[in-house]
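Chain entry —
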Amino acid sequence: MKKMILTALVAVASLAANAQVWVGGEVGFSADKSTYDGEKYQNSASVKILPEIGYTLSDKFDIAVLIGLEHGNSRNLDAEYETNFNSFVLNPYVRYKFVKSGDFTFFVDGGFGYKYTHWSKVDDNRNSWFIGIKPGIAYNLSEKVSFVAHVGDLSYSFAKQGKDKYNRFGIGANGNDLTIGAYVSF
């Protein structure tokens, strides 16, 4: 028993010796308009702030959590109807770094998450859960600063709002799935 405890302590100490804490995240903004037969009938916009904190376990693995907020609005010009929404996002994940070439690192993030969304003028709030993987690339600007981009995903999500339920399975990579962020290591 003492040997097992000692072995576990040595393993934890070796991981801690190589560990490094990093912070960063992503900031995003989107805006769109919808038209029908040349006439604009809806505008919408959103802004999100998605800070992250992570812990480097080894050259291959990180663990991290993203905790973020999103705010947006949508306005229907025909009906003079406007609604706002606020979302809270919690997403813990594991990052596996599989190729390092010079200042570039290719990785995949795998995790699960939760998103709570409240809309003005709507009685029921939406609870969403998701699980999936997202490929990405990091460019190490220096030993302490990295720029990171994700594109695409392989995911499953489930959401419930009142009596409505939503299921989504997604696979793909396109410009709508692109996210860009920065990390600073300590």
Observations:
- The chain has a mean pLDDT of 84.
- The chain is about 10% helix and 70% strand.
- Helices lie at 2-18.
